[in-house]
From TrEMBL:
Protein name, entry field: DUF7916 domain-containing protein
InterPro entries xref list: DUF7916 (IPR057238)
Organism listed in the record: Holtiella tumoricola
Pfam families attached to this UniProt entry: DUF7916
Start and end residues of each DUF7916 domain: 6-315
Taxonomic placement: Bacteria, Bacillati, Bacillota, Clostridia, Lachnospirales
Length: 315
């Protein structure tokens, strides 16, 4: 069985949920997830943030603010340039979004383009929320995620969404019902987004019992009081419950110095994390690209990192 950083585009196209989970589990804590805000224009003009993240060593790419009611990702449609005249731009955007709504291969095409596993954030917001419906967890959006061919979904909370431990639990149950054994379910809280941080170890066990395949929590050093010992407790509890553990850098420290990223990466590995996530606000909709590479090198060295980077070109 290949390790996560050895997978080719062809491998990814045929992976089952069970196989993917097993591959991550046997990759010895060397899986890198990069999150990108797809509603922003790209960090580098004419290159999507997905391609940039892949080229700097990411194995998995999570789309944040992907709108299921108006699906569109800046940077993957070269004919649509924000520098165009406004009238022409709006016309092209409307047509592309209309096409994407009926193109169930939209995400599958992106996976072929970047050669990486692709997931999407869905916000399990409380009832009565005014948050953009296209970003929210719902039966309809879950069915669309399944149809598009996403490899995984992430149930968490962006700032000011009102997401809580309880709404995440209910969201996991709904996701499990709709997605079954087709799509990996990742759930948890990266920081105080929504309604406060989660420090209670029992919370992560609840997420597993509700059906999460992977549970996320803050990397040591990202939120106040989250240190190596607490991260170890979280990881051990998740593993004992039968799931995988993912540490996250989601506090805009994805834009910190490389030495800070290295420390967080090593502490997360000491804690036993199976996956390490780096967030989307280091710069314009993604981590500083060099910090993705730094994270990768810290947990798996130059040999595996450079091969991963080269696989963005060599499919």
């Amino acid at each position: 069985m290949k390790r996560i950083f050895e997978l080719t585009t062809k491998d990814i196209e045929s992976l089952s949920k069970k196989e993917l989970k097993q591959i991550i589990a046997t990759s010895e804590g060397r899986t890198v997830v990069s999150e990108t805000i797809v509603s922003y224009t790209p960090y580098i003009r004419e290159v999507s943030n997905l391609e940039l993240a892949a080229s700097f060593g990411a194995d998995m790419i999570t789309l944040n603010t992907f709108n299921f009611n108006a699906p569109f990702i800046w940077g993957v449609h070269p004919e649509i340039d924000a520098m165009q005249g406004m009238g022409e731009l709006v016309k092209k955007l409307e047509k592309q979004i209309a096409d994407n709504l009926v193109d169930t291969d939209y995400i599958r095409k992106l996976k072929k383009m970047v050669g990486r596993l692709i997931g999407v954030n869905l916000e399990p917001v409380p009832e009565g929320s005014t948050y953009e419906p296209g970003y929210c967890l719902s039966r309809e959006n879950l069915e669309r995620a399944l149809a598009y061919g996403f490899d995984y979904i992430v149930l968490t909370g962006n700032p000011n969404t009102g997401v809580t431990h309880e709404t995440i639990c209910e969201g996991i149950k709904l996701a499990k019902e709709v997605l079954g054994e087709e799509v990996l379910i990742i759930a948890g809280k990266m920081h105080g987004a929504g309604s406060g941080n989660l420090y209670d170890v029992a919370c992560v066990k609840d997420f597993v019992e509700c059906g999460a395949d992977i549970v996320l929590f803050p990397a040591p050093g990202t939120v106040p009081g989250f240190d190596l010992e607490l991260a170890k407790q979280m990881t051990n509890t998740i593993h004992e419950a039968g799931a995988l553990a993912m540490t996250t850098i989601g506090t805009s420290q994805e834009g910190s110095s490389e030495s800070v990223i290295e420390q967080m990466a090593l502490l997360s590995k000491m804690a036993g994390a199976d996956i390490q996530h780096i967030g989307d606000c280091g710069t314009f909709g993604m981590a500083l690209p060099e910090n993705i590479k730094t994270l990768s090198i810290a947990i798996r060295g130059i040999r595996h990192t450079y091969r991963r980077m080269a696989q963005s070109i060599l499919r």
